[in-house]
Amino acid sequence: HNKIESIATDALGVCLGLDQLPEHWLESYAVVDRRISSYMKELDRVAKLLSNLNIPLVALKNSGITRGLYPYYGACPMGDMDVLVKKEDYSDAKRLLIDDGYIFGNRNFMEKAFYKKLSGGEPLWFELLVRSVDGRWISPDQEPGTDELIESSVAINGSDVRILSPEHNLLQVCLHTAKHSFVRAPGFRLHTDVDRIVHETDLDWILFKEMVSDLQVKTAAFFSLALASDL
């Protein structure tokens, strides 16, 4: 129901050994691994194209975690990739994606996104954002400014993709999880985002708490951290 078969495979492999798992578990991991590997390759390629126009690209949420922090692609299922650009760069970035073969249109009858079928046949929805959260329950003044996020973002070695600083990264996924009401289906993957940032980065917790207090999002951050911890 939560579409986490490949995450379960990864955990079972650690606990029991991959040689002890039935073939259907291994295949569930391999399918996701192939798809996410192609996503990350495409992310690097698009970031390179944008960098040629001096447009920085920051990968958000699962995309950034997978590319920069948790490189076990098979354990990182995702249905799309979200990236952040500055508002003044959006038009140029949109034009570049369309010229590159992406189709711009409706997704889920609500969102505007870019669609492409990759060379391996995998479908990809690519969401180009100018706000890092931009959703229900969270007002614009309760999320960090885009320019601030991009200026403090961190480079990834060997790539033009950038990821948010550790504190901004945790704040963004906490707010994103809150935006989706904490327990939407499939919801488990949202909480793995929180968990992985906490365990894979060296966080300045004092700075993080200051950010949370300044934006007045203590309740949202509390529940996002508490649910990830409990799970």
Tell me what you see in this structure:
This protein has 231 residues and is α/β, with parallel strands linked by helices. 50% of the residues lie in helices and 13% in strands. The protein has helices at 5-16, 23-51, 61-68, 90-99, 146-151, 166-179, 188-200, 205-215, 218-230; strands at 57-59, 81-84, 103-107, 111-117, 123-129, 154-155, 161-163. Strands 3-4-5-2-1-7-6 form a 7-stranded mixed beta sheet. Helix 6 runs antiparallel to helix 7 (188-200) and helix 6 crosses helix 8. The mean pLDDT is 93.
Question: Would you summarize the structure shown here?
Answer:
The protein has 9 helices and 7 strands; from the N terminus they run ααβαβαβββαββαααα.
Tally of helical segments: 9
Number of beta-strand segments: 7
Structural class, by secondary structure, is: alpha/beta
Low-confidence stretches: none
Anisotropy-based shape? globular
Please provide the ordered H/E string of secondary-structure elements: HHEHEHEEEHEEHHHH
State mean pLDDT (0 to 100 scale): 93
Q: Into which percentage range does the β-strand content fall?
A: 5-15%
How are the strands of the largest sheet arranged? Answer: 3-4-5-2-1-7-6
Q: Roughly how many Å apart are the termini? A: 16 Å
Largest sheet, in brief, is: 7 strands, mixed
The level of helicity is: 40-55%
Radius of gyration: 17 Å
